[in-house]
Each structure stands twice: as C-alpha cells, then as structure tokens.
Amino acid sequence: MQPSTRMHIAARAPHPTASLAPRSGALATKGRVMLPTLAWLGAAWAVSFYVSRQLHGRSDSFDKIFAQQNTPEVEAARKRDLLVETYGDPRNSLLNILGWTK
Questions:
Q1: Between residues 19 and 77, which one has the greater pLDDT?
Q2: 97 vs 4, 8, 14, 69, 91, CA distance in Å?
Q3: Which of 14, 42, 49, 56 could serve as a FRET partner for 97 with CA atoms 20 to 30 Å apart?
C-alpha cells in the first residue's frame, strides 16, 4: 500500500470515543431545553418564596405595632384625616400589598 492510501483508510475509521459522545435526538434536545427551564423556574420560585416570607414577616410586625395604637380616638382621627367616608378606606385598596392576605 502507498502511504496516501493508508492515511485515507485511517481517516474513515470511527474515533474510539465516538460511541461516548452525546447523540443528537429528541432526548438530547429535551434535556437541553428542560434543564435551563427547570433552573429558571426554581430560581423564580425561590425568589418569590423569599419575598413572600419577608412581606408576611413585615406585615406581622406592623400589625403588632398598629394593634397597640388602635384606640377609638386614633381611629376617629385617621378616618377624619384620610377622608375615609369620601374616598374609601385605603386599607382595602388593591395597592395595599401587605393587606392582601388578611
């Protein structure tokens, strides 16, 4: 055999680790799509869980503080100053995030 023929035959032989390489297909494509999606969903859940816990903790501490100050005189002054009869109670507003769970 001539040297060029041997080189040509060696180039056609499969690489010894070719069977270990990931195969492209439906399973490999699903894995490439699912892993980042699951990571993103997990991170979003963790952030929302953390924010929710912080809001509930802050809401509970404010509730304790305000419960000590809720006297009939304070409530009457609040209703008068915030014009509750005219504009409605701001505690029931959609923007009152801390009051949503109550």
A1: 77
A2: 77, 72, 63, 21, 10
A3: 42
Token readout for 17 is 């680790």
- Encode burial over 45-83: b for 16+ CB neighbours within 10 A, e otherwise: eeeeeeeeeeeeeebeeeeeeeeeeeeeeeeeeeeeeee
pTM for the structure as a whole:
0.46
Q: Could you tell me the residue ranges of all domains in the chain?
A: 49-102
- Is the Cβ–Cβ distance between 55 and 97 less than 8 Å? yes
Torsion of CA 55, 64, 67, 82, to 10 degrees: -30
Q: What are φ and ψ of residue 22, in 5° steps?
A: -65, 140
CA 89-90-96 angle, 5° bins:
140
Instruction: Please answer whether residues 101 and 58 qualify as being in contact, where contact means their C-beta atoms are separated by less than 8 angstroms.
Output: no
